[in-house]
Amino acid sequence: MTYSANRFFVAYGQKYRNLWRAYDALGTTEHDVEPYVENDTFKNLKGTKVDVDRDYESDCVQMLFDRYKNINLLYSGGTDSHTIYEKAKQLGYKFEQTLMVGQSIHPETGIDTNHITPEIKEYFKDDKGFCFHPSSLEWYEKTFLNSEWWYNDWEFDLAPITKLSYISAFDQNQLYLAGMDKPWLLYHDRNWYLYYNHVQLGRAWDRPNVFYFFGLNDLLPELAIQQALRARNFYINKFDVPQNTQFIDYKMHQYSANSKDFIVDFNRALGRISINKNHDMDQSFDNPVLSKRGIWRLHQLYQEGRGDIASSFLRQCMNIYNKYSQIDWTYAPYSPMGRIPWIINIDTLEYIHGNEVANMTQ
To answer: Which range of residues forms the domain containing residue 176?
Structure first.
């Protein structure tokens, strides 16, 4: 059996894996694309029983290994991917490959030193399937010079993990699990809703062989609802019930005085297992290009005397920004406004299409 993710962008009724292909289909019209992420699954959840205390992560691992062969894991060292690995380990399963993609041109310096920690090296010392794929100047050349990379991996980001089609260690024909994603919440009219947007889920969106583990799938959507219930309970215990309509992203507390404790406690409340607290607390709220890591990636290219690669990337972003006039941008020209495929009431499991959210919350 082969897995193929049920996530697309819809333009004139046609489904496209790639965001910019969908916008090409719309041309110069005023219409916008509609993200589609397991819509049929989540619109049919009414009557489903969700146990907030059940170990759905282990259930999901068991179901995956019962159904598929040659399962791989995209591993970052963060709590999401590490929880998946640990749950599989506890059940006695081994991944064919645990792929960790480097971000530094020189892996012994910079960002990678926060990822390939002594704890991670020790943890994986006996796992022959663990693979660290280093970045390189040659990789940046191949990806961002003379290449329409956005038609393969549409996210505007210099991080190699966002360009899986250009990673030689990534097999397009095998199943990979990815720790996508922690729940975002909407509180409105005394109801709590789970939602995601397409920018939040951009990493690996184009890759149909990448399975979004934490419930954004047709295998175990109960896990997504459970995660939202746990997030809601944590938020109320810490901040009380909001007074007005509020969109709640767990990263919104990054710059508050207690942000580090918040992220650690939030991960724990969701049931995550951590191996690298520095990684867990190093959250990026800004657009990836403008974040601390994004600026560092540009800086390392200039340090190597390869400002041509950085300039090429920035020009390509600007060209796309100018090409699609119907897009609203959060961080022009790097990040479009996140569009919501659906929201779902986490208590009643009522489904609401994303196009209705703006009118509902006005």
So the answer is: 38-361
